[in-house]
Specification:
34 strands, about 475 residues, nine-stranded antiparallel beta sheet, mainly beta
Length: about 475
């Protein structure tokens, strides 16, 4: 069955020999596009257990009975137990110290300062954290922070002065024994790093210093809570973490009695679909992208993994076969609702077989025969909207000047994409606009020696796995036939 479509037009590109027909989809009804695994049934929903807060127990080694902590589980849904503090920014000194005991064997949790109004994902905007990652008899500790514009820092050689780099080249603190009480402290100094801001974390006998990246302090951040936050990404193993004798900005909390801190989602058991990589995208009756009417394309888009067929997915309109030897064009609206670090969304022209081919290779993240727009990090820059392609003879993308940030705050944006192949051995070019700002990407002539082929337009997953975005597109116009 051919998909329903609207408003067919004809566009004369800047090529005397080439005509292309465009199709516009407003999603005011289900378009019946082709899909594979986009409404995944595996992995199955998982039970999330959050059971932390104030307790009369004595696990963290405080002087008296009473502490905070308990069982925390990483989940897509926010859960925290935290003290309300006077509003502070990157211009203020912040400090937290106390005792900690990680008694669980598997956990992933954040301890520190954040903003209750923007807890939505990891990295959490407006935050300064000690991140604890439990694996068996040991746990690992990391410094991390995030600005109000979702630009994060922590995992960089410039940020850590102890420990050794891991296989990915990141520097973290040494491992620490679980089921043992450790003293810890977090200090943010706005005057450190020559006024650029610095975070110093001490755990036991080890100290790590993280300098805010250039420009990050100027992004700003607003902190109004301090406490314990289950890492908000997707389901992972949970475990127990305990804190006591905390000193928050020079105020002592001994927990001899219930402090009645703010509690959100911290005593709750429920089923969650936020399980990596449970894809859940396609036609939606919503209107987050601010299209002409209700109905749009989107949902929860995890990164894919080309090593396993069940971890690849797409949802797209069937096209008359297109190639990279003729012009292509697309435009529309986009709204990013949620974006977890190490996540990617790809929208554009792709091939239903080549782009979902199973392979043991992990050499490329973009699928074969893809040309379109990308929403992803790196974390130090937040989320960017940029052009990319992967053709048989090479791939390309740009993070250079002109690449615009897209914040995961739900705001709607307009965008366009125009691709022109080179002629006479010249390079081709991709040009995108995002809210009117332009960015360009050259497509080398040698990458076009073997023409790319495309038979779908829509959402397709990456070839290297990772976390998820919740994103929506509407009022899409795109090339569907070349002549």
């Amino acid at each position: 069955m051919r998909p329903r479509w609207h408003c067919v037009g004809i566009l004369l590109f800047c090529c005397a020999l080439c005509h292309a027909e465009e199709r516009t989809e407003h999603f005011d009804a289900d378009p019946g596009w082709d899909g594979v695994n986009h409404r995944a049934v595996v992995p199955e929903p998982r039970e999330i257990v959050q059971d932390f807060g104030y307790s009369r127990s004595e696990n963290a080694g405080g002087e008296n009975a009473g502490e905070i902590g308990g069982w925390t589980t990483p989940a897509a849904e926010a859960a925290y137990y935290a003290k309300t503090i006077p509003t502070a920014t990157f211009d203020d000194r912040l400090s937290l110290s106390g005792k900690i005991n990680c008694t669980g064997r598997q956990f992933h949790v954040l301890v520190g300062f954040f903003n209750s109004e923007s807890v939505n994902e990891w990295r959490t905007p407006s935050s300064i954290f000690l991140r604890l990652y439990g694996r068996g008899d040991v746990f690992y500790a990391y410094v991390e922070y995030c600005t109000s514009t979702w630009r994060a820092g922590g995992d960089s050689p410039d940020g850590f002065y102890t420990g050794v780099p891991d296989e990915a080249g990141r520097f973290g603190m040494f491992e620490f024994p679980s089921q043992q009480v450790h003293d810890f402290s977090i200090v943010y100094d706005p005057d450190g790093n020559d006024g650029g801001g610095a975070v110093t974390i001490t755990l036991g006998d080890e100290t790590a210093v993280c300098h805010l990246d250039i420009g990050h302090k100027q992004d700003g951040a607003t902190f109004n809570r301090c406490g314990l936050l289950a890492i908000p990404k997707s389901y992972d193993s949970g475990g127990d973490v305990w804190l006591d004798d905390l000193v928050i900005n020079d105020e002592l909390e001994t927990f001899d009695s219930d402090p009645e801190w703010e509690a959100v989602g911290n005593r709750k058991t429920y089923l969650s679909n936020g399980v990596r990589p449970r894809f859940d995208f396609g036609y939606s009756e919503t209107n987050f992208a601010d299209g002409l009417a209700s109905g749009e394309l989107g949902g929860i888009v995890f990164r894919g993994d080309c090593r396993y067929p069940e971890r690849l997915a797409f949802y797209g309109d069937r096209l008359d076969p297109l190639t990279s030897m003729q012009p292509l064009r697309a435009s529309g609206k986009v709204a990013l609702q949620r974006g977890v670090s190490d996540s990617t969304t790809l929208l554009g022209f792709f091939h239903s077989e080549d782009s979902t081919a199973v392979s043991d290779s992990q050499s490329a993240g973009f699928p074969m025969n893809f040309l379109g727009v990308v929403v992803e990090g790196p974390s130090r820059e937040g989320f960017l909207f940029y052009p990319a392609n992967h053709l048989a003879d090479g791939y390309g993308y740009t993070h250079g000047p002109g690449i615009e940030h897209i914040l995961p705050n739900g705001d709607a944006h307009d965008w366009t994409l125009v691709y022109q192949p080179g002629s006479g051995g010249a390079d081709g070019e991709m040009v995108i606009t995002f809210d009117g700002q332009e960015a360009r990407l050259a497509v080398p002539a040698e990458h076009l020696a073997t023409p790319g082929r495309f038979d779908r337009f829509g959402l397709v997953t990456t070839w290297i796995d990772g976390n998820a975005q919740t994103i929506y597109f509407d009022d899409l116009t795109y090339t569907w036939r070349q002549e």
